[in-house]
Amino acid sequence: MNKLFCEKGVKYLVKQVEALERTSIRLNKNVTVGAVHRARTSSRRLRSAIQFYSKYLKQNVHSSYSKIFKKIMDASAELRDLDVLLSFLQKESQHDKIKSHQFGINRLKLRLRQRREKLENRFVDMINEFDSSRALKDLSRGFDKKYKKKKERSSRETKQKVQRLLIKYIQKSNEETNSYYNYIIDETNVEELHDYRKVVKTQRYTIEFFNQQFRYGLSDEINKLKTYQDELGYIHDADIWIDLFNDFLKKEEKRVIKFYGRRTPMNEIAPGIEHLISVLQSDRKKMYDVFISQFKDDLGKDFWVNLYNKLIGEQKISEQGS
């Protein structure tokens, strides 16, 4: 690649680092839901961009910052999951007017808030590690000089080269989708649905990165991927929460027996949790039906082929005009 390609990379990385720096200032004052979400989004975009530019970055820069952003992603993901779950419980608590359910739901909320307090400390440690780094300076100067010295004939030439990279990525994404097809059409394949959610997430952020830097007009495709990501995310959340609620019942029963010497108090705790499990199982089924219907008609059918043909057509026009 060439100088312009690297300069665009620097510009994008700096923008995301600055966004993460602004968020880190807020996080050191208060670990709010919004700040956690922004940190998670910025760190994910940074890591996706660093992975894409791995060949062009200095090895020490790529290695160290890829690890830092991965830590922030993981820590913020745990907090985000808890925040989403607590929000769900709050809504269910307000919606469910059955008094016998409230005691169990409130006990679960208490345990989750205790868990969140512990996670906050770990998350702030990750943010402080980022703050103590020289991310802005290191990433802005982190491109290998041998790539930055290569001059392009024109910005059009750069866009055409990157377009070829994107086309290869589209082909790879189509192959990835096909490899999951037979698994995700079965709603009981929890692990495969979760893995595919991560694939779609990476596809979305990678194409978003290309689109932001070189303006390929892919907003509609990116929005579609985001919709699939959100649907798969809800399915994944439901699977995780159902397991978590069942685990909570087992652990809480042990606490109750240890404290009271009998299981009887669980009669107040269990009904609310069992109700939540029933709600989640129903909602998960509905969301999966929506997702798989869309998937069979689009993402699992001709989404990537159409995107490939769109870019190939634009590539021919671009090359004819050069």
Pairing-aware structural class of the strands and helices? Answer: mainly alpha
The fraction of residues in strands falls at under 5%
C-alpha end-to-end distance: 18 Å
Extended strand count: 0
Helix content: over 70%
Instruction: Give the uncertain stretches in residue-range form.
Output: none
Protein described:
- With 322 residues, the protein is mainly α.
- It folds into 2 domains: 1-151, CHAD domain (Alpha solenoid); 153-322, no CATH class.
- Helices cover 85% and strands 0% of the residues.
- α1 runs antiparallel to α2 (33-52), α4 (99-131) crosses α10 (266-297) and α7 (155-184) packs antiparallel against α8 (190-214).
- The longest helix has 42 residues, at 219-260.
- The mean pLDDT is 86.
Task: Set down the secondary structure blueprint.
Blueprint: H1 3-27, H2 33-52, H3 59-95, H4 99-131, H5 135-140, H6 145-148, H7 155-184, H8 190-214, H9 219-260, H10 266-297, H11 303-321
Brief rundown of the structure:
With 322 residues, the protein is mainly alpha-helical.
Q: What labels would you give this structure?
A:
single chain, 322 residues, mainly alpha, CHAD domain, 2 domains, 11 helices
